[in-house]
């Protein structure tokens, strides 16, 4: 079945540590996105990519980095510069230009310990 | 600045009742308005969507009402069921399928 796979489901980060969240899709979608979800704040865009080897910052990119070396993969690194990383992270993909909306992954819950 | 404003933040409805969630936007360039349903620990799933050339769209028990002049749209859930208990997000985008702007979400609880 086509879809988006995020891993791991739960992730624990120590202070000062970088961690990478995986996002893989087999939908052949061109665009991929990373959102952060916090209670009462909805979904906030971190980074997005509409084509391989190209990506743009979203509204809250500070402390995060991404790469898009393959169409299927869009990993997110939460760096030590992100001071409040505890959140639920969602990856999504879409076909730009169509009335299709996003397909979301099932999320990764990151907790700082 | 919140591009899409959503209310209420939480909603409790009796089984069989009507749930209504409202959203408002300012950017008249938005041309696609989806609603997403999210269960705890899961990613949001597309529920229903509308474009501004129609005033209403219905899919089963779910209806979107769209008021272009007021720049408002709402989700109506008829005959609400306990299984509808979830968080609902409205969203809007320009040039459909590109970056979406999400509301802050509504936590719906349907009481048996």
Could you characterize the architecture of this molecule?
The complex is a heterodimer of chains A (113) and B (112). The model of chain A has no long low-confidence stretch (mean pLDDT 91). By secondary structure, chain A is mostly beta strands. The radius of gyration of chain A is 13 Å and the shape is globular. In chain A, the strands form two sheets. In chain A, strands 2, 4, 5, 6, 9, 10 and 11 form a seven-stranded mixed sheet that branches. A four-stranded antiparallel sheet of chain A has the order 1-3-8-7, with no helix packed on it. Chain A has no helices and eleven strands. Chain A is 0% helix and 51% strand. Chain B has 112 residues and is an all-beta fold. Helix content of chain B is 0%, strand content 54%. Chain B has strands at 4-7, 10-14, 19-25, 33-38, 45-50, 56-59, 62-67, 72-77, 86-93, 100-102, 106-111. In chain B, strands 2, 4, 5, 9, 10 and 11 form a six-stranded mixed sheet that branches. In chain B, strand 7 (62-67) and strand 8 form a beta hairpin. Chain A binds chain B through residues 4, 6, 31, 33, 35, 40-43, 45, 48, 50, 58, 90, 92, 94-107, 109, and chain B through 6, 9, 32, 34, 36, 41-46, 49, 51, 89, 91, 95-100, 102-105.
């Amino acid at each position: 079945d086509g879809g988006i796979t995020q891993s791991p489901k739960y992730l624990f980060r120590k202070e000062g540590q970088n961690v990478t969240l995986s996002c893989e899709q087999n939908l052949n979608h061109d665009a991929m996105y990373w959102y952060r979800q916090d209670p009462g704040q909805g979904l906030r865009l971190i980074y997005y990519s509409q084509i391989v080897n190209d990506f743009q910052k979203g509204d809250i990119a500070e402390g995060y980095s991404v790469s898009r070396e393959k169409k299927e993969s869009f990993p997110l690194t939460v760096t030590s510069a992100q001071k409040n990383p505890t959140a639920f992270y969602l990856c999504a993909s879409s076909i730009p230009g169509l009335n299709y909306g996003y397909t979301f992954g099932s999320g990764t819950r990151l907790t700082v310990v | 600045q919140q591009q899409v404003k959503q209310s209420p933040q939480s909603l409790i409805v009796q089984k069989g009742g009507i749930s209504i969630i409202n959203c408002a936007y300012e950017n008249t360039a938005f041309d696609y308005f989806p609603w997403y349903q999210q269960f705890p620990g899961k990613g949001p799933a597309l529920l229903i969507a509308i474009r501004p050339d129609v005033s209403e769209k219905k899919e089963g028990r779910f209806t979107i009402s769209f008021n272009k002049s007021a720049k408002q749209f709402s989700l109506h859930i008829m005959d609400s069921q306990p299984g509808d208990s979830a968080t609902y997000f409205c969203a809007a985008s320009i040039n459909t399928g590109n970056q979406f702007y999400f509301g802050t979400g509504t936590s719906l609880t349907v009481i048996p």
